[in-house]
Design brief:
The protein is α/β, with parallel strands linked by helices. The protein contains eight helices and seven strands; from the N terminus they run βαβαβαβαβαβαααβ. The protein has a seven-stranded parallel β-sheet, with helices on both faces. The relative contact order is 0.15.
């Protein structure tokens, strides 16, 4: 069958994107829709979420903070039918040297990603069809030690281990992690501010792929992980080779 006549890879399936109003989440929703899926979007900002929902033709949207575990549980309890895949992109890294760390912010940063993973794994029990997956976002950028990277590095190390253990515990639901380096998203822009263009230029000059990784690159990998039912307990890097260059 030629690519122009193949069946959409996610036809008849439902994909939930937590953090789906911008960046990687929105790009994944677009690609999932292009592959025939119904999509359900969640995010914190209701106005941006409504706009994203209209853009991709979402089946429904729900505005809440994924770090509010009661709200997360209520969302999954309120779904009106089974789902196939959950993609979680919500959250941001925490960067600060030890002397400048706000320990309450550190506490939140350490708790948020693992707790959202645990919450999604628990609250989707019995709702995922066979072959479905829970897909979470991690990173590669802090695999080498550096000043200000300690908390993000700890999460970089911890999340793949958590994903692998969840894949065993909630099988046959699949659990996978995407580890991204710098991705050119609104989140990256907010973190870098007026250094954004400088960072883009630096990456174009040093990455083996000769360009900056964008949300569509991550979305393509996400949809592949959703459709390949042999994949579970794994971490997939998408950073253009960033971890191999200084």
């Amino acid at each position: 069958m030629s690519p122009s006549t193949r069946e959409p890879a996610l036809a008849g399936q439902t994909v939930v994107v937590v953090g789906g109003s911008a960046g990687i989440g929105l790009a994944t929703a677009r690609r999932a829709r292009a592959e025939g899926a119904d999509v359900i979007l969640t995010a914190r900002d209701p106005d941006r979420l409504r706009s994203a929902g209209v853009e991709v033709g979402a089946r429904s949207v729900a505005a809440f903070d994924a770090n509010d575990l009661a709200a997360l549980e209520g969302f999954f309890d309120g779904l009106d039918g089974p789902i196939d895949h959950v993609m979680v992109t919500a959250g941001a890294p925490y960067y600060a040297p030890l002397v400048d760390m706000d320990f309450e912010d550190v506490r939140r940063a350490i708790a948020e990603h693992p707790m959202v993973m645990l919450g999604v794994a628990r609250y989707t029990a019995g709702r995922i069809r066979p072959g479905g997956t829970l897909l979470f976002m991690g990173g590669t950028g802090a695999r080498r030690p550096g000043v200000g990277l300690g908390i993000t590095a700890a999460m970089t190390a911890a999340l793949p281990v958590l994903a692998a253990n969840l894949a065993i515990e909630i099988a046959p639901v699949r659990v996978n992690l995407i580890a991204a380096g710098f991705v050119d998203t609104p989140l990256s822009a907010s973190l870098l501010g007026d250094r954004l263009d400088e960072r883009r230029d630096e990456l174009r000059a040093t990455l083996p792929i000769g360009r900056v990784v964008g949300p569509d690159d991550v979305a393509a990998l996400a949809v592949h992980v959703m459709t390949n039912t042999a994949l579970t307990g794994a971490t997939f890097d998408v950073d253009g080779g960033q971890q191999f260059v200084r």
